Amino acid sequence: MAQDNSISTNAPMQQSASDEDMRDDMRLGMSLNDIHMSISRAFHTMNNTTRPCARSLGLGQGQPRILSYIAVHGVSTQREIARFYSIDPSAVSRLLDPLEREGFLTSVPGRDRRTRALDITEKGRHALAAWEDECRRVDRIMFRGFTSEEEATLRDMLERVRKNMADELEAGKKHE
Question: What is the pTM of this model?
Answer without folding.
Answer: 0.74
